[in-house]
Amino acid sequence: MRHIQINDYREDPAVRELLALAADPVDEPALQGLFDHCAGLLVLVCFDEEEQVIALAAYRHSDAYALCVEYLAVLPGHRQQGLASRLMNELRASYRKAVWATTDDDAIEFYRAIGCVISDSAADPRWPGTQRYLCTLPHSQLLLEQPTEDPRYEEVDGALSRGLVKIVEPQARWGQDFADIRQVIAAALGASALAIEHTGSTSVLGLPAKPIIDVTLIVPDADDEDRYVPQLRAAGLVFWHREPGWYAHRMFKPGEATNLAPANIHIFNPGSPEYLRMLLFRDHLRTDAADRAAYAAVKREAAAALAASDGENGLVMDYNRTKEPFILALHKDLFGA
Q1: What is the CATH number of domain 154-335?
Q2: pLDDT tens digits, residue range 131-163?
Q3: For the chain, N or C: smaller number of CB within 10 Å?
Q4: Domain 2-137 annotated CATH 3.40.630.30
């Protein structure tokens, strides 16, 4: 397994077949265009004993925490040998990053089998009418760490607000509230919405929560605000704040005119450790009744303690800080291995 310069393999039949399998170019000019595109990527390949290329991963670094595999293919005669999973795991281990890709129904079971976190994704204009998925292979150590740099919190059109932090019993409407918000975001961003997930406590049936829907939105580059901020604002969402130093985080809220439920819409890059933590934590609580009950008790105690000390002058960050030991301990149980 080693890296190659793709331009040295333009006439190699195996590499031509692998790229055709990965992207289905319609003719020779399209295949050459694919070679041109891959010339700007890193290409890791597997060889057979005769030094013939038999599997390929063309990828790029998307940010400090993740890399994107744009094309992944194995020659038909060498499948079911674990070559694709070896390529994915080699990239994760070599760079100490999460590895993400988008795919369709034909390959989704492969990504599921190797341990990827999977979200429904927006349609890809290259394959119209095809269901797409965002698949991310986490790096466990990154899930246990936090950035050491200054988050660089910046208010935009919102501000920190104080009030009574109140926990309510689960509400049947929360799922529909999320669906309504998701529809607005999807219509505004189209293919730029790589994933739109319901996260936080309102996404877990049976879990009490603050009556605020948490939404996690994945865009190709959260720092490139010109590619999504105007569209979200045009849809009536309010750009509340940004934290460029904390996983490139941005947050929006629905404006009053949208008639949407109160929500925090968190925006991250693909492969973000925080996005992965949110989904894995959510999915665990959905299936583990004991931890769900324990977390419910922690939430009620944290809200009661803050109400007793600060009343109507409470900050959500203080409520979150009280919950943090439980969350971090559960993260260690989930990701420590």
Answers
A1: 3.30.460.10
A2: 999 999 999 999 999 999 999 999 999 988 899
A3: C
A4: yes
